[in-house]
Write a structure and sequence with these properties.
single chain; alpha+beta; Aminopeptidase; 13-stranded mixed β-sheet; 8 helices; 36% helix; 32% strand
Length: 287
């Protein structure tokens, strides 16, 4: 963010560093839903960085905002805010790979942007946002542990496989994998990757893995949950997730959340077995 705010309309402007505290107050109305943007705001305050935060003001007070970076993410966005965010995004042109966040705001944004930005590669209109409030309801898998740097040769292909299965294309196709491999290595180095890795007849292999996509002091959001297809049906996912919850609570943050495609009923039921409950709804538009 620049030091000077750029006025877009009478009620909307690009937020500057001195606006971060006010923006955080808006996000902290719902820290589970807004966890990703809270992490971006705190990172910006500490180190700066790319992307912009658009703030919508009503009566002189910041009411809604929108992160515009690799993703477009609305926060506490009213219908009026969505209209001006969509206008800003339309005039700027699509620079993101997805729109993601609270379902109502995301789908309203897409309704206004589809003509100029479409077609989308995929529209996922309902993704339950799930939170576990108490201890896991089942015993954690004792073999799930933080992934180590020496595990990169086996965890990286597992991450590629998960991404390709989930999103529909390989994350290494564009540049040979340099950027994606660096992202995986960064998560491992930061202690934000957990996995169960065993020696098998084909060598060492990942049976289960998950990453912490966004982390703040109040909570962590789990992403990239994956069970090796050769080992599915063995009941690895639920104990693995219980181990992730246990680790996060002990070493990272008190709250653990995630969001999942509603059509992935097996995953939803697995998370419910662990103790996750639906607390909201996300939507994602993929380009």
């Amino acid at each position: 963010m620049g030091e000077d705010a750029c006025v877009l309309r009478s009620s909307v402007r690009v937020l500057a560093r001195h606006d971060v505290d006010e923006a955080l107050e808006v996000c902290l109305r719902d820290p589970v839903t807004n966890l990703f943007v809270i992490s971006r705001l705190r990172s910006t305050r500490q180190r700066g960085g790319g992307g912009e935060f658009w703030g919508w003001y009503d009566g002189g007070a910041l009411r809604s905002l929108c992160w515009s970076g690799a993703n477009l993410v609305p926060v506490e966005a009213t219908t009026e805010a969505v209209e001006v965010f969509a206008d800003r995004a339309r005039r700027q042109g699509r620079q993101c790979s997805s729109i993601v966040g609270p379902a109502v705001a995301v789908l309203e944004l897409w309704d206004q942007l589809e003509v100029s930005w479409g077609p989308a590669r995929d529209v996922r209109p309902r993704q339950p946002l799930m939170l576990i409030a108490g201890p896991p309801l089942i015993a954690p898998d004792p073999l799930v542990r933080p992934t180590r740097v020496e595990d990169l040769p086996v965890i990286t292909p597992a991450c590629v496989a998960m991404f390709t299965e989930e999103v529909g294309y390989s994350p290494v196709a564009a540049d040979g994998g340099a950027l994606y491999h660096a992202q995986v290595a960064g998560l491992v180095s930061a202690g934000r990757s957990l996995s169960r890795i065993e020696q098998g007849p084909r060598g060492r292999e990942v049976l289960f893995k998950a990453e912490l996509g966004s982390v703040i002091s109040e909570g962590a959001q789990v992403q990239g949950v994956w069970v090796n297809p050769r080992h599915r049906g063995r009941g690895l996912a639920a104990p693995g997730m219980a181990a992730v919850v246990q680790h996060v609570r002990a070493h990272v943050a008190p709250s653990v959340s995630l969001y999942v495609n509603d059509y992935n009923l097996r995953a939803v039921r697995t998370y419910e077995r662990v103790g996750f409950r639906t607390v909201g709804a996300f939507a994602t538009i993929l380009f």
